[in-house]
Write a structure and sequence with these properties.
The complex is a heterodimer of chains A (114) and B (426).
Chain A (H helix, E strand, L loop, with lengths): L5 H5 L1 E5 L10 E6 L2 E8 L2 E6 L14 E2 L2 E3 L6 E3 L5 E3 L8 E7 L2 E7 L2
Antiparallel strand pairs in A: 1-10, 2-3, 3-4, 4-9, 5-6, 6-7, 7-8, 9-10
Chain B lengths: L18 E2 L1 H4 L1 H12 L3 E6 L8 E7 L2 E7 L5 E5 L14 E3 L3 E2 L6 E2 L5 E3 L12 H4 L3 E7 L2 E5 L7 H5 L2 H5 L8 E10 L3 H7 L6 H4 L13 E4 L4 E5 L16 H8 L13 H19 L8 H5 L1 E6 L3 E5 L3 E9 L7 E9 L12 E4 L13 H18 L6 E2 L6 H14 L4
Parallel strand pairs in B: 12-19
Antiparallel strand pairs in B: 1-20, 2-11, 3-4, 3-6, 4-5, 5-10, 7-8, 8-9, 10-11, 12-18, 13-14, 14-15, 15-16, 16-17, 17-18
The chains are: A mainly beta (114), B alpha+beta (426).
Chain lengths: 114, 426
């Protein structure tokens, strides 16, 4: 499980991720509860981010990972999928990450409770 | 496959003339090198395995140029200048990646992975039009050999195979196509690119720079062969230098660093150095199924020794049966007293799944060391320690030219080939 302390977790609504985990180093975009999200497989671990590059607001899905670093397919900016931190320009602001856990039916993502 | 030719070449008809230091220190000579050599030859740009799928790319930086090497939809590999044709912006930062299209950060112009212009923002504002045939990414010649991608900035360069000359015949028996990258780094070194090439072109420095290695490698019985542009050095390993022990001696170092590592029972080993070499080769042969390797085309010397090739102008192969260290020595774009040393270690482990390591970056100016960074890093570190010091010494008023001996014939030959390009005879 990644991200969030207990108080934050309590405010999360957990949703099953509706797409299969992609191959290692790959991403998969999907929509869930009004969010556009991207599921990443970084070194065998799943991470979910807002599917929007902090630079130009184009989708991050379709980008490839090297280790835990996701490259935006548009301009090559990079973020670390573990915490969304900007790694390489032109991305300068962090991407939004969401908590992930292993649920009974597979990967679940924690989104802000309505 | 035909075996690697072992025939010795005759001594090249080269005079042991002084080599002016200005070729190593002068900006004027570096400019000539760029114009008449670097932009004319074939250059190793990277590994085919780094771009397995359409849209995968890596950049190759040479002098002031940056080249995109891109896997195409039809499986071929193409190279394009990494330059947006609108205002000249670099499309991609140095490194590897994947795109559906190349998109310029400056104004958002987009190019397909074959380099053709796909979209320009607000094309109607260009009254002269946006002709795709003139504004697509400029092509660069590209070809492959042995799993390596080569490019040439010379649109009229002949076929890569012709340029490589004897190299495929000599090195194809190793089957580098399927070898795996186990280490990858680039070191910025405060020396001329040729200072670095030269350092690996002779075994004359072994007994001093790498004094500890004479217990298991033989600088004295190293042989040197010069071909048209390229050269070879067969550097015996699993064999001590006669500077260290009488010929035939099996040293403790040979046992520890070679025999023991491949599973030979060194406690009960009896025999001379030839027996030790056979035992080492046989032990490696037994590893073939585990590695997925095929040593069938290699002779005993290739199983034990370093078959060291220099492909003009700037590629070094330290070829062993289990691994090859490949160096490329790239010039700094503006400073003849600086260069980039690329080092990849390829392992002969075709059936093993080795994760592709990220490239590491070091600098001698920062005092970085390769010691402990990779297998053999301590050995390389001794060379890297020398290089900035050699370059600084070359810049002294006291030093005018290189004074070369017969064990340094490859340096002489490299200079001769270089001057054929500079003077128009290549």
């Amino acid at each position: 499980m990644t991200g969030g302390d207990r108080a934050e977790e309590a405010a999360l609504a957990w949703h099953p991720v509706p797409v299969p985990v992609p191959a290692e180093g790959r991403t998969c975009g999907f929509e869930l509860a009004g969010y556009r999200l991207v599921l990443c497989n970084a070194l065998g671990s799943p991470y979910v981010l807002h599917d929007e590059c902090p630079h130009m607001r184009v989708p991050l899905s379709g980008g490839r990972l090297q280790g835990t670093v996701l490259e935006c397919p548009r301009h090559g900016g990079k973020v670390d999928v573990r915490d969304g931190a900007a790694v390489e320009r032109p991305i300068r602001r962090s991407a939004t990450c969401f908590a992930v856990r292993e649920g009974a039916a597979g990967i679940e993502v924690g989104l802000p409770a309505a | 496959m035909p075996p690697t030719p072992m025939t010795r070449m005759p001594e090249p008809a080269l005079e042991y003339v002084p080599i002016p230091k200005s070729r190593y220190t002068g900006a004027e000579f570096a400019a000539l090198e760029w114009e008449r050599m670097w932009t004319q030859v074939w250059l190793m740009a990277g590994r085919v395995s780094d771009i397995p799928e359409p849209g995968d790319y890596f950049t190759f930086e040479i002098g002031s140029e940056s080249i995109l090497v891109i896997r195409q939809h039809d499986g071929s590999i193409a190279a394009r200048y990494n330059v947006c044709m609108h205002r000249g912006n670099r499309l991609r930062e140095p490194g590897r990646g994947h795109v559906d299209r190349f998109s310029c950060l400056f104004h958002g112009w987009q190019y397909e992975i074959d380099g053709s212009l796909a979209a320009a923002l607000d094309p109607e504002c260009f009254k002269q039009g946006v002709p795709a045939d003139q504004l697509s990414l400029r092509p660069v010649l590209c070809d492959t050999w042995a799993g390596f991608v080569f490019i040439s900035l010379n649109p009229a360069a002949g076929p890569l195979r012709d340029y490589l000359g004897i190299i495929p015949e000599h090195l194809d028996p190793y089957g580098f196509e399927n070898w795996k990258i186990a280490y990858d780094c680039t070191v910025e070194i405060e020396c001329n690119w040729k200072t670095c090439v030269d350092a690996f072109n002779e075994a004359y420095h072994l007994s001093s720079t790498h004094a500890w290695t004479v217990a298991f490698s033989d600088d004295v019985r190293t042989v040197y062969d010069c071909y048209d542009k390229h050269t070879r050095m067969i550097f015996p390993e699993v064999q001590a230098s006669p500077r260290f022990a009488p010929p035939g001696t099996v040293t403790d170092e040979m046992k520890e660093m070679f025999l023991k590592r491949v599973g030979v029972d060194v406690e009960n080993f009896e025999g001379d150095a030839d027996a030790a070499r056979r035992a080492y080769a046989e032990a490696i042969q037994k590893m073939a199924p585990m590695l997925g390797a095929d040593f069938g085309d290699l002779n005993l010397s290739q199983m034990c020794d370093d078959f060291h090739y220099t492909i003009f102008p700037n590629i070094t192969f330290n070829t062993h049966s289990l691994f090859v260290w490949v160096f490329t020595h790239r010039p700094h774009p503006t400073d003849p007293n600086r260069m980039y040393f690329d080092f990849i270690n390829l392992m002969n482990t075709p059936s093993q799944d080795i994760p592709r390591p990220d490239k590491e970056h070091y600098s001698t100016a920062r005092g970085d060391t390769l010691d402990g960074k990779c297998a053999g890093g301590d050995l390389l570190d001794e060379d890297l320690y020398n290089l900035p010091r050699v370059q600084r010494g070359m810049n002294s008023a006291a030093f005018e030219h290189l004074h070369l001996g017969s064990q340094e014939v490859r340096i002489l030959h490299h200079q001769d080939t270089l001057m054929r390009y500079i003077e128009g005879g290549a």
